């Protein structure tokens, strides 16, 4: 969704700016060589941003790295970097040995945590997002907590557009785990995940 937002809003805005520059350049070209040169610089700057935007949208759309086992921490840090945001500040702490996680668990957790982070960035107007993931050979715990606007999870479901949250819960459930969403208007949002690492594990509180 954020990929689409970035693409539709920023990408299209920049494309429009380029078309206007085209028109300006045509008018300015004959009359003022100096203005034409400056317009050229503006064009280069706009093209630069357009390229950066495309990199972000493709990074946002990317599925987890094809190589398994991959590093959840590296993948999430790559995601944060690709967004090139200054706010919210994302504090990411990962404590676990990648080799301990079955690929299916690593995939599910990466995608769920990324969606929770994406939501915190896209919807919360948060200043901070704290992301903690920790696991051993038995189980994994993850939390994504922002200090933003919060929302009413029950009403979000009523109003449709909960593909991200539903998808997250379905993925974690398919991995045998449990998701909780704690949020209230103006109280920030906290998503927690618990996932068994060993199959024989069953849900506990
Ligand atoms: N961290 C958050 N802070 C504030 N609102 C949120 C947050 N996460 C989700 N929401 C709200 O819940 C809605 C559903 O989220 P989601 O299922 O991921 O769909 P989408 O992100 O595509 O809108 C969002 O549109 C938003 O209104
Ligand atoms: Mg979402």
UniProtKB/TrEMBL annotation:
GO terms for molecular function: ATP binding; phosphorelay sensor kinase activity; protein dimerization activity. Transmembrane segments: none annotated. It holds the Pfam family HisKA_3. Keywords: ATP-binding, Kinase, Nucleotide-binding, Phosphoprotein, Transferase, Two-component regulatory system. Signal peptide: none annotated. InterPro entries: HATPase_C_sf, HATPase_dom, Sensor_HK_TwoCompSys, Sig_transdc_His_kin_sub3_dim/P. Residues 104-199 form the Histidine kinase/HSP90-like ATPase domain. This is histidine kinase. PANTHER family: NITRATE/NITRITE SENSOR PROTEIN NARX-RELATED, NITRATE_NITRITE SENSOR PROTEIN NARQ. Its EC number is 2.7.13.3. It catalyses: ATP + protein L-histidine = ADP + protein N-phospho-L-histidine. It comes from the Bacteria. GO terms for cellular component: membrane.
């Amino acid at each position: 969704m954020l990929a689409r937002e970035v693409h539709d809003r920023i990408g299209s805005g920049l494309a429009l700016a380029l078309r206007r520059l085209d028109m300006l350049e045509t008018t300015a070209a004959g009359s003022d060589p100096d203005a034409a040169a400056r317009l050229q610089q503006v064009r280069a700057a706009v093209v630069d941003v357009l390229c950066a935007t495309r990199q972000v949208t493709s990074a946002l759309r990317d599925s987890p790295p094809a190589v398994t086992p991959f590093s959840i921490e590296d993948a999430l840090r790559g995601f944060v970097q690709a967004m090139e945001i200054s706010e919210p500040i994302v504090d990411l702490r990962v404590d676990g040995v990648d080799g301990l996680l079955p690929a299916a668990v690593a995939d599910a957790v990466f995608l769920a945590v990324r969606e929770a982070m994406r939501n915190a960035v896209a919807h919360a107007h948060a200043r901070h997002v704290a992301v903690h993931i920790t696991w051993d050979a038995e189980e994994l715990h993850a939390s994504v907590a922002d200090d933003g606007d919060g929302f009413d999870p029950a009403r979000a479901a009523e109003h449709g557009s909960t593909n991200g949250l539903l998808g997250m819960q379905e993925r974690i459930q398919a991995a045998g785990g449990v998701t909780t969403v704690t949020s209230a208007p103006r109280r920030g949002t906290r998503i927690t995940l618990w996932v068994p690492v060993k199959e024989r594990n069953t849900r506990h509180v």
